[in-house]
Write a structure and sequence with these properties.
With 83 residues, the chain is mostly helical. It is built from 2 helices and no strands. The protein has one domain. The radius of gyration is 21 Å and the shape is flat. Keywords: Membrane, Transmembrane, Transmembrane helix.
Length: 83
Amino acid sequence: LPAATRRCQLISGKSSASGTIRGDLAMTAYTRYSSVIVTAVSTRGSGLGWIPDNLNRGHLDYFFWLLTILNAVNFVVYLWIAN
């Protein structure tokens, strides 16, 4: 019985480390993904872009609509995978 308990603790520790690594990778991917999106909508050639230094001149509403669309697509993919 103690050997089985130790084996369960080892497996639990490995899966915990694996989950931590996956969580860190997901956070890194999210950070890269969001910085690419912000960079893409902030600098649009010679124009102001959606998120300029002066927010009164920009189109922050376009940025939030883009986030809404991306979240809707993410939710549809989640529903598709969950089935």
